[in-house]
């Protein structure tokens, strides 16, 4: 782990970006347009954060990105590199100042500058949707004077916004990927910002800077890592994207309790997803054919068809019910796909089949009857009045963590806090 401590301290009120040159007027105009759009959408709510959005030049943090193309084949990524940092082509600036997530790394450390033409790959770093970044800083209640720990520096754009409000010395940000961290540090320095940047595993937090008033994670976790709970002060807040291996997502805001290791909170509205944190990501599924073709399979009718694997709230519930399960599709041979829930950890699977009359059957095999577990969870949720995910909450105490639906006394599901194998 390497660290670069800030040699300078900038008060929050100090003028932000130092960058000047051709294209800066256009960039400033586009920032104003973006801020207006984010305010109209309700993401940007306070004048102070609006000022930060107006001051942080996102194009310095995202000089290049991958444009996504979905086609009949696999998703491809086309590199889009600004003509030159000085010239700042207007189309590049318009793309960078749109309310869009911009993917900046594929498969660990492939940058747009490294490839020519469309490529395939898995996004591993991005500049988060600006609307989501500002919603998160607004929702976490960050104020000047707060000490903030950010997990997932990425491009450094969200780090720069935090520096605008709190001052460089109050912001610590941890990034797993050394190359992303280097680019972020350079971009922050270009804009005159020198927060405490750490290259390392953010799941460990950063004890040296604790206690923090706020923790904001921009990569998702299967449970809240114990060091995060230890490093935020009593009464401080943690904004945590929760996800799993289905994958299903939720964003929870927790308040640290009086005792270390205790926290309570509620899920925030909206359908937002983040890339999984290294260390919590799903392992590759091995031996799918064997999992699907076990001899102990049994088949029965089910009231719950594939739609429950598409809906935002029910997919999250299914993930709670079967935390190591994955949702996969295989071609059915008639142009449609068969939907499967497979759990390599237990060697179990459930396959949904049309019953020919508009309903569904399920074929289950392995020691855990996955669809029985899913139905039991969905039935409990239905009996609780089918609360939307925005009415879910979370409790952490005594080394256990659970998500509840509707109210803290409602149905609950424990999160896996064991060391993941991903
Ligand atoms: C969505 S990006 C961050 C976006 C960033 N907030 C921005 O505005 O550019 C998520 C980042 O989390 C980083 N990450 C993933 N796992 C991590 C871990 N265990 N510790 C620290 N950073 C991690 C990824 O490398 C990636 O850069």
UniProtKB/TrEMBL annotation:
Record-level Gene Ontology MF annotations: protein-L-isoaspartate (D-aspartate) O-methyltransferase activity
Tree of life domain: Bacteria
Source organism per UniProt: Streptomyces calidiresistens
Protein name as it appears in the record: Protein-L-isoaspartate O-methyltransferase
Record GO cellular component, one term: cytoplasm
Record flagged with keyword Transferase: yes
A GO biological-process term: methylation
EC number(s) from the headed UniProt entry: 2.1.1.77
NCBIfam families for this protein: methyltr_grsp
SUPFAM superfamilies: S-adenosyl-L-methionine-dependent methyltransferases
Region of interest (Disordered), residue spans: 1-26, 66-129
Bias kind Low complexity: ranges: 117-129
Annotated InterPro entries: Methyltr_grasp (IPR026448), PCMT (IPR000682), SAM-dependent_MTases_sf (IPR029063)
Major localisation: cytoplasm
Compartment(s) where it occurs, according to its Swiss-Prot or TrEMBL record: Cytoplasm
Family classification: Belongs to the methyltransferase superfamily. L-isoaspartyl/D-aspartyl protein methyltransferase family.
UniProt keyword terms in alphabetical order: Cytoplasm, Methyltransferase, S-adenosyl-L-methionine, Transferase
């Amino acid at each position: 782990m390497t660290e670069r401590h800030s040699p300078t301290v900038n008060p929050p009120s100090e003028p932000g970006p130092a960058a000047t040159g051709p294209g800066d007027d256009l960039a400033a105009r586009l920032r104003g347009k973006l801020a207006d759009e984010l305010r109209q959408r309700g993401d940007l709510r306070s004048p102070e954060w609006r000022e930060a959005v107006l001051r942080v030049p996102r194009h310095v943090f995202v000089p290049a990105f991958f444009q996504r193309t979905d086609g009949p084949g696999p998703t491809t990524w086309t590199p889009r590199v600004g003509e030159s940092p000085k010239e700042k082509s207007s189309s590049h600036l318009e793309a960078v100042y749109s309310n869009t997530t911009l993917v900046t790394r594929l498969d660990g450390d492939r940058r747009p500058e490294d490839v020519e033409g469309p490529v395939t790959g898995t996004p591993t770093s991005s500049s988060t949707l600006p609307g989501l970044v500002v919603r998160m800083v607004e929702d976490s209640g960050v104020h000047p004077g707060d000490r903030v720990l950010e997990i997932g520096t990425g491009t450094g754009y969200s780090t720069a916004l935090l520096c605008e409000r709190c001052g460089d010395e109050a912001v610590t940000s941890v990034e797993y990927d050394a190359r992303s961290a280097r680019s972020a540090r350079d971009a922050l320095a270009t804009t005159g910002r020198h927060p405490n940047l750490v290259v390392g595993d953010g799941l460990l937090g950063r004890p040296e800077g604790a206690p923090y008033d706020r923790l904001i994670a921009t990569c998702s976790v299967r449970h809240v890592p114990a060091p995060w709970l230890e490093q935020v002060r009593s009464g401080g807040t943690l904004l945590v994207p929760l996800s799993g291996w289905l994958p299903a997502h939720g964003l929870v805001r927790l308040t640290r309790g009086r005792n270390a290791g205790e926290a309570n909170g509620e899920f925030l509205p909206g359908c937002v997803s983040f890339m999984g944190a290294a260390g919590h990501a799903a392992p590759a599924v091995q031996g799918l054919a064997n999992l699907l073709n076990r001899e102990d399979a049994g088949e029965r009718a089910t009231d719950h068809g594939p739609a429950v694997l598409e809906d935002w709230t029910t997919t999250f519930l299914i993930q709670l019910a079967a935390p190591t399960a994955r949702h996969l599709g295989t071609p059915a041979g008639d142009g449609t796909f068969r939907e499967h829930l497979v759990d390599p950890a237990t060697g179990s699977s459930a396959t949904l089949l049309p019953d020919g009359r508009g309903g569904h059957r399920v074929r289950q095999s392995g020691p855990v009857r996955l669809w029985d577990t899913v139905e039991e969870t969905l039935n409990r949720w239905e009996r609780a009045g089918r609360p939307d995910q925005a009415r879910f909450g979370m409790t952490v105490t005594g080394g256990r963590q659970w998500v509840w639906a509707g109210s803290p006394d409602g149905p609950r599901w424990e999160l896996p806090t064991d060391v993941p194998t991903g």
